[in-house]
Amino acid sequence: MTTALATTDYLAKLQESAPPDILHLDLGMAYGQQRKYVTVKVPDSFSTLELSMLTDMQFGHLECRVDRIKEYVDWLLSVPNRFCVLGGDMVDAAHALSVGSPYENACEPKEQVFEFAELLMPLRARILGYVGGNHERRTIKQFGSLGSLIANLLRIPYSDGKQFIDIYFGKHAPFKVELWHGRGAARTKGARAQMIHQFMQQGEAHLYLCGHLHDAMLLWDWRQVRDHRHGRIRLQKIAGVMSSSFLSYWATYAEVAGLSASDVMMARAIIEPNGHWEVTMK
Predict the structure, then answer these.
(1) Residue 271: closest CA among 163, 127, 174
(2) Which residue did the predictor score with more confidence, 189 or 257?
(3) Domain 2-281 in CATH: superfamily?
């Protein structure tokens, strides 16, 4: 663990381990340190582009499944066309004044941030966006959101709320992604589906990604789009996906509250240069 080093030594070692950028990201909609609009161009040399969501890790919690996080990091790095977005609640960040007990955490919030940055640094060049969740905001009344700190350490674009990502790849001009952590305490599948579907009615994205409720769900819908060139209405498919969590069900608040059990299942979009795309869960 390098956090015992002096701050300058820690930062130097962390950045020395940072992989170089693979894709150039153009950033827009600047609000302080937040960047809410991300544009990325993918080279034609890619046969396909895979975009996965990693969310609700709650790193630092005693029941965080760090082995599964490492498994996903290794899997993403195993081929050059896999990229990801972060959906929030990356650290647990419990403290004396927050919801949740600090006794459920292995270390205090700032230590969680430092260790998490080390864990994900090998992946930094594959991360296209990051939105904060309620756990990053647990410290907001003390010194601000932890999300900005994590994003600064990893040098990735961050938004406290939503983030809009345009991916220019082949005939996708662009493929539009809307990223948001999620909301609510819905306990039934129907209530969770309603939250996702309401999210899908906002904006004009192809793919809507959220988390927060520690469940995996995929919804399809179609949007009517006016084709002025050909004088017709075409149907554009859209998908809303909720990814689950890297937090264990047993011996956590989910079990205590009687919430539905879930295992790790993250959204993955496979984008083809011919304009086709699909969504799977891993």
Answers:
(1) 174
(2) 189
(3) Metallo-dependent phosphatases (3.60.21.10)
